[in-house]
Amino acid sequence: MLSIGDLSRRTGVKVPTIRYYEQSGLLEATARTDGNQRRYGEAEAEKLGFIRHARDLGFSLDAIRALIELQDHPDRSCAEANALARDQLAEVTERIRRLQALERELQRIAEGCDGDGTAGSCYVLRSLADHGACETEHS
Question: pTM score, two decimals?
């Protein structure tokens, strides 16, 4: 059995996050010692590893909850898991598109200024003051 600190070190998940996952129902409440310390077994460590990996991939807590539900029922179709993964991929692809647009706009602004002038004539400051001058849509 692992203490919460041992579980944290083993999985790389911070103690407050482990507690949050318990409160949100992603991890089941664990057994406690007579001294009221949490104790975790191998199953909890594996589930926490699953949650951490899914979070690293950007899945929401609701999506992770659905994925855990599927994992707990191995006889069910994996179509829902596939749909969740495809939705996450689409979200990441869109985020990358927006970041690339931001990169292009920032590059344009930075390259428009040689840094030798004064703040009153600075291309960077003028560009930031006039959102209509942006060449790419970003939010």
Answer: 0.79
